[in-house]
Write a structure and sequence with these properties.
The protein is mainly alpha-helical and 75 residues long. It has one domain. The protein has two helices and no strands.
Length: 75
């Protein structure tokens, strides 16, 4: 069974954060084409995605740097 190091796990979290941020960019581009009620719903959705992306980024950064330097430990 393969175990991810904390650095590898952190990298995956950071990659997922970036995927969500890309989705946010796509949704923001669509905002001008929406009616006001749809626009408000989309803004709420975008805000929720920002929160998720931030959580992933913070957790990923924490895991990636958990041991400091180049020491990697398995989790």
């Amino acid at each position: 069974m393969y175990k991810l190091s904390l650095r590898e796990l952190g990298t995956q979290y950071l990659q997922q954060s970036e995927k969500i941020r890309e989705r946010i960019r796509q949704l923001r581009e669509a905002l001008p084409t929406l009616q006001e009620s749809e626009r408000q719903d989309m803004l709420i959705r975008i805000h929720s995605l920002y929160v998720s992306a931030l959580d992933l980024k913070e957790t990923g950064t924490y895991l990636f740097n958990y041991y400091g330097g180049d020491d990697e430990k398995d989790c």
